[in-house]
């Protein structure tokens, strides 16, 4: 038995990747949940919104790289991020003006808005593939590791190594900053309060003189920022491929629903729940069990519950369980 | 303009488009569009049943289509006897064991009083069941996949005659429907009765899972190694080209034997598909105008009022969800038959789920004729937008120097015009003609 090595292995393969992935999902789910709370529909175009913001960021990253601009050990993409956010904001405001506004004024049923968002999804997806192509793009540069396996081994003298990728560190730090800023905005500022009021009770908010168009506009701006940040972090950590971003829709929706649609706190909890379950169920526990259990009990096989290809199934099953037993999610969300 | 005239004109337009393709490009591509158009029309009928009749938002069509494809493999391929001997029984016992675990757990949830005792029992059942299942399942699978992995490595189907019994493939179509219906029943039991958005997410998820299963369970359908050379109900081109009677006929029509044989095979398929489409269309039309159809639309328009009138809303939703999914399964089986192979890697939600939605919305949700029209029209667009996009791009870039990076990029990207166009068509129809080309009456 060697619990210390077991814990290091666990951190290296499960805890750290899951925390990074969870932060990315949480940021994505926050966007979905905000749209649901304010505009009252499930936005199927969210994955492609993330892809669009990321694409603009990548284009600017390439531009900066060609100018020789860099942030040293930190990826250049962070410098390009604000421009990506601006590009994404422009696109979302444009779609809202041209597409969604009409249905809002008509007071269309939520399901019609969902179908409209399907159309928007097609267009954004086409746009991204049209501009940057359907292939994998890697745009991460700078230092690869904060702590590499080797330095960790030398530092601690343990048998197992622990690696923290720069992108993972950046993901967590950025996510904390963004979430803190968002909650400060929602809870402390006048505009944020008016947004929450609008989300809680539309009619009452209108009666108290809140301008709905302004609330909607600010929502889109925040969603653009969240989606771009989430997309860029995911892309830095893994890689950018338009189709993968489309597929992220499922875990992101699962996070938002598990946490309770419309509840920002729930989106974060949901993101981490989904990420941890995905990583834990698809991880081969052989090594950790080998350290943690007495030798006689150590497993022969890989001790992997499901192959990694079934990670969608994990988020889906958790989603179903939560829906069956707590239909409004962990943190009571709203149900339209 | 009266309605019949308008509808005839719309279908006439589709016919002109397809025949025009025949004259301008080739009859092979025209028949390709026709055959897939027929299949798309059937899928659109299925979705129309769910969305148009009952207002159910199903975005898992891809999954049901893929299940139909799986049925084709399971029915039409010859069995791999060695694989069955090596692990067939083991896999089936393991699957039964897994199913039994779930059934017992469901019974426990229903029968036992809630409390910590029940939670413990459920956990023990699920975890224990899972490990027993894996212990039975894994070794059998390994044995099956070890048998001649380059060509089989899976259990195969149930067709004892092999390629000679091509008609068995026709049996796969209804089986595909049944398979899809079974899965739809499971999803419907859990997700119907929840809110509409949740059904959407649930179906989206189940479709991805079905594709993941098809990609990874090699013992079932060879996963991403694909099953190719499925026996087929139509004659083979090579045989036709060796048949003197066929060659004479081709010569008398003034066609070369290769073109004649490919066209003849496609025509055979077109005939088969048309029969299926007509049967399903008549059934759907009868259903729509029966008391059952009126009840469905009443439920769609006002659930509360219908419930107050004594209609069992959840049960009816389940019914129509299963029926619609079954139709998609049939269409999926037909498509795999036409392709002659099952390639799980090619199932993409944009193509198999959302495109069908565009068909239904554009054609006219709630109207079967509209769904069929949408199927043909949108499929035609989907195929032809690419060459059109290429043409436009070549026109735009004609002034640029050859080999300029922008020019190459624009021409390469022309393929992605499809998605843009489909999105645009969907948004325009939703905005300016939300009831579709042939609106519900």
Features:
heterodimer; A: mainly alpha; B: 441 residues; mainly alpha; 2 domains; 18 helices; 77% helix
Describe this structure as you would to a colleague.
- The complex is a heterodimer of chains A (336) and B (441).
- Chain A is mostly helical and 336 residues long.
- Chain A has one domain.
- Chain A is built from 14 helices and two strands; from the N terminus they run H-H-H-H-E-H-E-H-H-H-H-H-H-H-H-H.
- Chain A has helices at 3-39, 46-67, 77-106, 110-132, 149-156, 166-188, 190-200, 202-207, 212-237, 242-247, 249-259, 264-282, 286-292, 311-325; strands at 145-147, 164-165.
- A two-stranded antiparallel ribbon of chain A has the order 1-2.
- In chain A, helix 2 (46-67) runs antiparallel to helix 3 (77-106), helix 2 (46-67) packs across helix 9 (212-237) and helix 7 crosses helix 9.
- The longest helix of chain A has 37 residues, at 3-39.
- The radius of gyration of chain A is 21 Å and the shape is globular.
- The N and C termini of chain A lie far apart (53 Å).
- The mean pLDDT of chain A is 89.
- Chain B is an all-alpha fold and 441 residues long.
- Chain B has two domains: 3-79 and 156-432, no CATH class; 80-155.
- Chain B is globular.
- Chains A and B meet through helix 4, helix 10, helix 11 and helix 14 of A and helix 7, helix 15 and helix 18 of B.
- Chain A: Belongs to the binding-protein-dependent transport system permease family. LivHM subfamily.
- Chain A: It comes from Pseudosulfitobacter koreensis.
- Name the pair of protein chains with the most residues at their interface, and give those residue counts: A-B, 51 and 46 residues
In which range does the helix fraction of chain B lie? over 70%
User: Approximately what portion of the residues of chain A adopt beta-strand conformation?
Assistant: under 5%
Q: pLDDT average of chain B, as an integer?
A: 89
* Low-pLDDT stretches of chain B: none
SSE string of chain B? HHHHHHHHHHHHHHHHHH
Transmembrane segments (chain B): 7-24, 30-49, 56-77, 83-109, 116-136, 164-186, 198-214, 263-284, 318-338, 350-369
Pfam families (chain B): BPD_transp_2
Keywords (chain B): Cell membrane, Membrane, Transmembrane, Transmembrane helix
Membrane topology (chain B): Multi-pass membrane protein
């Amino acid at each position: 038995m060697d619990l210390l090595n077991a814990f290091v292995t666990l951190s290296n393969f499960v805890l750290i990747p899951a925390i990074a992935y969870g932060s990315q999902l949480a940021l994505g789910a926050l966007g979905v949940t905000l749209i649901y709370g304010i505009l009252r529909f499930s936005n199927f175009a969210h994955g492609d919104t993330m892809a669009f913001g990321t694409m603009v960021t990548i284009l600017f990253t390439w531009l900066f790289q060609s100018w020789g601009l860099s942030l040293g050990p930190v990826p250049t993409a962070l410098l390009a991020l604000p421009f990506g956010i601006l590009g994404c904001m422009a696109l979302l405001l444009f779609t809202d003006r041209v597409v969604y506004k009409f249905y809002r004024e008509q007071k269309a049923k939520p399901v019609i808005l969902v179908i409209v968002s399907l159309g928007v999804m097609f267009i954004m997806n086409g746009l991204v593939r049209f501009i940057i192509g359907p292939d994998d793009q890697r745009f991460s540069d700078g230092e690869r590791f904060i702590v590499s396996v080797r330095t960790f081994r030398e530092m601690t003298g343990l048998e197992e190594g622990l690696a923290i990728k720069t992108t993972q560190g950046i993901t967590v730090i950025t996510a904390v900053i963004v979430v803190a800023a968002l909650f400060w905005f929602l809870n402390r500022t006048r505009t944020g309060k008016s947004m929450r009021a609008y989300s809680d009770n539309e009619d009452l908010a209108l009666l108290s003189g809140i301008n709905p168009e302004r609330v909607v506009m600010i929502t889109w701006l925040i969603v653009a920022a969240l989606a771009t940040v989430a997309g860029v972090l995911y892309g830095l950590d893994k890689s950018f491929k338009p189709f993968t971003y489309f597929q992220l829709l499922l875990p992101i929706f699962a996070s938002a629903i598990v946490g309770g649609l419309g509840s920002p706190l729930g989106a974060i909890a949901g993101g981490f729940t989904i990420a941890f379950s995905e990583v834990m169920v698809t991880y081969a526990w052989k090594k950790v069990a080998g350290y943690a259990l007495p030798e006689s009990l150590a497993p022969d096989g890989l001790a992997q519950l499901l192959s990694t290809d079934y990670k969608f199934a994990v988020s889906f099953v958790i989603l179903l369980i939560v829906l069956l037993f707590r239909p409004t999610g962990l943190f009571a969300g709203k149900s339209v | 303009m009266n309605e019949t005239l308008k509808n005839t004109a719309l279908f006439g337009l589709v016919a002109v488009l397809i025949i025009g393709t025949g004259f301008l490009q080739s009859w092979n591509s025209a028949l390709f569009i026709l055959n897939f158009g027929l299949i798309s029309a059937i899928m659109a009928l299925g979705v129309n049943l769910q969305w148009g009749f009952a207002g159910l938002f199903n975005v898992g069509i891809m999954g049901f289509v893929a299940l139909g494809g799986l049925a084709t493999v399971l029915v039409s391929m010859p069995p791999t006897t060695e694989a069955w001997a090596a692990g067939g029984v083991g896999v089936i016992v393991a699957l039964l064991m897994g199913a039994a675990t779930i059934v017992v757990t469901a019974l426990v949830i229903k029968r036992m009083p809630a409390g910590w005792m029940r939670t413990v029992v459920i956990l023990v059942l699920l975890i224990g069941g899972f490990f027993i299942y894996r212990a039975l399942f894994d070794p059998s699978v390994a044995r099956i996949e070890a048998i001649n992995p380059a060509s089989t490595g899976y259990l195969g189907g149930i067709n004892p005659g092999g390629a000679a019994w091509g008609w068995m493939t026709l049996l796969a179509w209804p089986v595909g429907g049944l398979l899809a219906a079974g899965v739809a029943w499971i999803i419907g039991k859990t997700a119907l009765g929840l809110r509409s958005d949740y059904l959407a997410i649930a179906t989206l998820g189940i479709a991805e899972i079905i594709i993941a299963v098809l990609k990874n369970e090699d013992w079932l359908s060879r996963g991403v190694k694909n099953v190719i050379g499925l026996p087929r109900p139509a004659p083979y081109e090579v045989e036709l080209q060796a048949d003197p009677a066929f060659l004479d006929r081709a010569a008398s029509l003034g066609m070369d034997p290769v073109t004649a044989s490919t066209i003849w095979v496609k025509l055979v398929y077109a005939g088969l598909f048309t029969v299926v489409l007509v049967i399903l269309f008549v059934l759907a039309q009868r259903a729509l105008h029966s008391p059952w159809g009126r009840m469905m639309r009443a439920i769609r328009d006002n659930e509360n009022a219908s419930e107050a009138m004594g209609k069992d809303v959840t049960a009816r939703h389940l019914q129509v969800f299963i029926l619609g999914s079954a139709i998609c399964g049939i269409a999926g089986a037909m498509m795999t038959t036409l392709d002659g192979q099952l390639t799980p890697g090619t199932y993409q939600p944009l193509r198999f789920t959302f495109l069908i939605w565009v068909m239904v919305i554009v054609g006219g949700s709630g109207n079967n004729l509209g769904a069929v029209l949408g199927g043909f029209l949108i499929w035609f667009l989907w195929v032809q937008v690419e060459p059109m996009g290429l043409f436009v791009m070549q026109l735009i870039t004609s002034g640029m120097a050859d080999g300029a990076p922008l020019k190459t990029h624009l021409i390469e990207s022309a393929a992605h015009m499809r998605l843009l166009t489909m999105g645009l068509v969907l948004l325009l129809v939703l905005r300016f003609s939300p009831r579709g080309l042939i609106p519900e009456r």
